[in-house]
Amino acid sequence: MRLVDLTLHRAQVPLVSPFTTSFGTETVRDVLILELRAEVDGTAVVGWSECVAGSEPLYSSEYVDGAADVIRRWLAPMLFAAGELSAQTVAGVLDPVKGHRMAKAALETAVLDAQLRAQGISFAEHLGVTRTSVPSGVSVGIHDSVASTLDAVAGYLDQGYVRIKLKIRPGWDIQPVAAVRDRFGADIPLQVDANAAYTLADTAALRRLDAFGLLLVEQPLGEEDLRQHAELARRISTPVCLDESVVSAAAAADAIALGACSVINIKPGRVGGYLEAWRIHDLARAHGVAVWCGGMLETGIGRVANAALAGLPGFTLPGDISGSDRFYATDLTEPVCMRDGAVEVPRTPGISREPIPERLAQFASAEPAVLRPGR
Ligand code: OSB
Ligand code: MG
């Protein structure tokens, strides 16, 4: 395909309730959306994607203004200059720029969306996914009180979510976990996510979680602490899962070889795109390492792409693939629905769900910026 132009849209989409993690609280999703126009064999085609970078560089070094800037100054010009392009060649074209994986992922996804729409096939079909739906887990932020946490969990269980993930941080770990086990029993699938808030010096606190039969503890230590995760994994019995540390298939290979994790949370944005995410799935599966699909508060644009990816056979644990209404009263797209504990694997051509124009306008926080070749 040949790129015609790329429009950067920005929107502020309010969250239904504040979402607190060990690194901060979000009340609104400040989202960068890409609309790519291209030509395939003389036919005009459009591709959409959203960038998962947060508004602040607290989950990783990336943040949404930085992603928009590197796309505008560096990445989009490189793609425009590349001539004939496909989703499979995007990563190679952008490789000279170090890092910026969320920005690169957004570009590759927009190209892939356009490519698949031109071919008339869904991302699920492209992947060879045969499952028709994927199990739906929910990520529960840090609340002000145990009572409020229990209310939230009760609500999600009532709605049918099949797995609960509690966000934890030092001082907010045993208490909510023990309370959830006490109230809802030993059988509900339960896991925790620390977002890198602990150190090896906290081993004793983390070992206390062993008593609660958790599916896993996600990213207890720092992003770069692979060796220390391996040490922690030897000291506790709860399976260690990595999120932030797995920035690429190479990092996943290192983590597996070191014994730093027995489970991986795959987030396409974090690893540079859905094609790298697919490679990590294949690698983990070959090594008998379970994977599940994480989320980054995606709107419907990216949420449906995650649901398709999670249909691959190595995704043996429920992902953070909740319905739109978990985070948004009004999504940018037709809502993604969670029914009977599952989200449907989309079968429409492309990888992304296109935003509803009126919603994009309603939530817009800046004028759309159109980037063209040679500028
Ligand atoms: O660590 O998984 C995380 C949201 C933003 C940034 C990091 C994380 C999360 C979540 C929410 O846990 C997952 C979701 O989108 O459902
Ligand atoms: Mg996480």
Q: Architecture of the largest domain in CATH?
A: Alpha-Beta Barrel
Low-pLDDT residue spans: none
Fourth-tier CATH superfamily name of the largest domain: Enolase-like C-terminal domain
Q: Beta fraction of the residues?
A: 15-25%
Count of strand segments: 14
Major sheet strand order: 5-6-7-8-9-10-11
Radius of gyration: 20 Å
The CATH topology of the largest domain turns out to be TIM Barrel
Ions and ligands = 2-succinylbenzoate, magnesium ion
Q: Give the SSE string.
A: EEEHHHHEEHEHEHEHEHEHEHEEHE
User: Main sheet, how many strands, which sense, barrel?
Assistant: 7 strands, parallel
Account of the protein in words:
- The protein is an alpha/beta fold.
- The protein has two domains: 2-119 and 357-371, Enolase-like, N-terminal domain (Enolase-like, domain 1); 124-344, Alpha-Beta Barrel (TIM Barrel).
- It is built from twelve helices and 14 strands.
- The strands form three sheets. The chain has a seven-stranded parallel beta sheet with strand order 5-6-7-8-9-10-11. Strands 3-2-1-14 form a four-stranded antiparallel beta sheet, sandwiched between helices. The protein has a three-stranded antiparallel beta sheet with strand order 4-13-12, with helices on one face.
- Strand 6, helix 6 (174-184) and strand 7 (190-193) form a beta-alpha-beta unit.
- The model has no long low-confidence stretch (mean pLDDT 98).
